[in-house]
Design goal:
homodimer, alpha/beta, Beta-carbonic Anhydrase, Chain A, 18% strand, globular
């Protein structure tokens, strides 16, 4: 048994009790969240989101990458969201790496040139939130009426703190 | 009160009862999930994941985009995950758009040229899963021992179905 097989077994139990199969696609609360893939974050829990409430976009760092922007453009223009939360977190792995170190490690381990990959690390947690809020607000493809606010999440306390722009 | 303010109020309640502040960063079950941002999906619930168990990467469609690969490289090389699940879902918005239509809509609404943006839509749900599993397996930067399996999630039943490679 792999872990994946365990998760599939858990899904069978979940599906037996599933009774929310009629939700519409557009998020009920018209919100999108951009946050980190980190295993210690469960945005549905720490924001009190119910099924069907919000788009959730996650990647290493919770960065406003080109791909996160792609997702937010679809979220706003096709599915009607108009409030975005950017949430980075304390003790994030992206605070402890540099592109140069990770590119070198990958090249050594794989024999392939990794120097073209920007891993989007950051050195200052609050500044990375400000940068990503600004990047979203600055996109010509995000509707001007969309509100974007930035936060840090403390993995030790479960608390969000707003980052002033 | 905005919806964001409501979510912040929910977070205060969450933090008051939070007692999992000592989890380590590496995912306990050494698993990463790539899935869609869709509001009707809660991967922690439908896979039975606990806090600290798994990396969760989400974007429009659950695609193995360059940014999802960036996240998976960090997940495997720095945080030790070795099983990945790619999960697309029924009734996905990405099944009903084309790049040309969305690029045209954006250009009309914003006055900016959107023709350079690939929104990663797909016409065949199972094939898009196969494509993304193959893209991850084919990356020279994903360790060869990592297992990658693909699934569809039915938003009406809550059930996962495996997509054969």
């Amino acid at each position: 048994m792999t872990v994946t097989d365990d998760l599939l077994q858990a899904n069978r139990t979940f599906a037996e009790g599933f009774d929310q199969g009629d939700l519409p696609a557009p998020p009920a609360r018209r919100v999108a969240v951009v946050t980190c893939m980190d295993a210690r974050l469960d945005p549905a829990s720490f924001l009190g989101l119910g099924l069907g409430d919000a788009h959730v976009i996650r990647n290493a760092g919770g960065r406003a990458s080109d791909d996160a922007l792609r997702s937010l453009i679809i979220s706003s223009h096709l599915l009607g969201t108009n409030e975005y939360l950017v949430i980075h977190h304390t003790d994030c792995g992206m605070l402890s790496i540099t592109n140069e170190d990770l590119q070198r490690k990958l090249s050594l381990e794989t024999g392939e040139d990794a120097s073209h990959i920007d891993f989007l690390p950051f050195a200052d947690l609050e500044q990375s939130v400000r940068d990503d809020v600004a990047r979203i607000k600055g996109s010509p493809f995000i509707p001007p009426g969309v509100r974007v606010r930035g936060f840090t999440y403390d993995v030790h306390t479960g608390k969000l703190s707003e980052v002033d722009a």
